[in-house]
């Protein structure tokens, strides 16, 4: 059966003033700036709640950092495979594009699996959203809220990257493929960047 | 494609090793028993360094127009404002806690 070659949608007629290569990239940056404010508010509220609590448990003693350090490393690796996928698109190396995007998605799935394992283990240890055996009840509330919100972003990223992988596998236009992969990459790196902050403020400090 | 590939790609593997090394340092500084203030300052500095590396090189912010950088800085400005707004409340809570401790002390 002949391979189906799709015609990519027409590119935007006018140039974006800040990102001449695409309006979508500017849109993603504006979205990410808004999303960053959301995470900033969550982390700011976490700091305020924690500072006003007299019996906040020591996070790295209660949550454990071995697994989360590994999760951090995994997200950093997935950011590298994402940029390697972009390099492969530039070279026109389609098998490498599929491989690196696939590895990025795999990294996200492994991260989610580890987070599910971590949550299960902590819930079994007594950490609940409304309380815990070690001190301030908001310790559990903030933990599940912040890591859960980030986990939803990773889930969204995995779905987004899967759609991009399906698109670049079928569409032959190198410029278009680069554009959609770069925009998806911005989102994925942002998820990595936010985790760097979450890891520091929720687990280490 | 010309616009999208106008800049030379950074050495991504070097960025990766920097990020990995900074993560190891982050984990190392929480164990030796340094004063909490020093550990906190070090951890925040390390996290900001890692986040900057991701934004500048993986997200290519270093190669984008300056105005796009300003868009990326807006959340930082809002975050700083939020911190400044919350700080007086936390100080008030600290004073209240200290006062209540003083008042309760004679009962024991």
Question: How does this structure look, described?
Answer:
The complex is a heterodimer of chains A (205) and B (108). Chain A has a single domain (23-204), classed as Up-down Bundle (Four Helix Bundle (Hemerythrin (Met), subunit A)). Chain A has six helices and no strands. Chain A has helices at 23-51, 59-62, 66-91, 94-125, 138-170, 174-204. The radius of gyration of chain A is 20 Å and the shape is elongated. The model of chain A has no long low-confidence stretch (mean pLDDT 88). By secondary structure, chain B is an all-alpha fold. Chain B is built from three helices and no strands. Chain B folds into two domains: 1-64; 65-108. At the A-B interface, helix 1, helix 3 and helix 6 of A face helix 1, helix 2 and helix 3 of B.
What is the gyration radius of chain A calculated from CA atoms?
Answer: 20 Å
CATH superfamily of chain A: Cytochrome c oxidase, subunit III, four-helix bundle
Give the termini distance of chain A in whole angstroms.
58 Å
Helix segment tally of chain B? 3
**CATH C-level label of chain A:** Mainly Alpha
**pLDDT < 50 runs, ≥5 residues of chain A:** none
Q: Whole-number average pLDDT of chain B?
A: 78
| Second-tier CATH architecture of chain A | Up-down Bundle
* Helical fraction of chain B: over 70%
- Strand percentage of chain A lies at under 5%
Tally the beta strands of chain B.
Answer: 0
Please sum up the structure shown.
The complex is a heterodimer of chains A (205) and B (108). Chain A has six helices and no strands.
